[in-house]
Write a structure and sequence with these properties.
VC0802-like; seven-stranded antiparallel β-sheet
């Protein structure tokens, strides 16, 4: 149960971040969550969008370098130790967390984090065995489309 994440490689210079954002906006594609990491030379903008195939196509047509990566959305308790519980479920596996970032979905004391694992199937099995909820792309997109509040709610 993975989501497809788009990674866009950008020069680390003023004004370069607006290009992919503008291209997606003009195509009517909403960014659901994102992460931006940088080095001195370049940055990596990681995005989750509903129609990732179309987003990839319009970004590449605009000259962006785009890579598609499977990631896993995991429900996390929003309390001290919530993330530690997730990581403990992975401790005895060979799955390594390459990076992670938070999603804007939340339900009471639970939030959603996006994980990039080097071995996603092994990580998903370990998390499921520990009773940790993996959030499907259908659940995320459905919640966002049906949201009539000030923000999405995962329940």
């Amino acid at each position: 149960m993975t989501l497809q994440q788009l990674s866009i490689f950008l020069e680390n210079r003023p004004g370069h971040l607006i290009t992919p954002c503008r291209v997606l906006a003009e195509a009517g594609i909403n960014i659901l969550t994102l992460s931006l990491a940088d080095t001195q030379q370049f940055g990596i903008l990681r995005l989750i969008v509903r129609d990732w195939q179309r987003a990839k196509a319009v970004l590449e047509a605009a000259g962006c370098v785009v890579k598609v990566t499977p990631v896993v959305a995991v429900e996390v308790s929003d309390r001290p130790g919530g993330l530690a519980d997730i990581l403990a479920a992975l401790e005895k596996t060979e799955a390594n967390v390459a990076y992670l970032y938070a999603f804007t979905l939340k339900c009471g004391t639970r939030g959603v984090m996006v994980f990039r694992f080097d071995q996603p199937d092994q990580a998903i099995a370990a998390l499921a065995a520990a009773g940790i909820k993996i959030v499907s792309s259908d659940e995320i997109f459905s919640l966002l489309e049906n949201d009539t509040t000030d923000g999405p709610v995962l329940c």
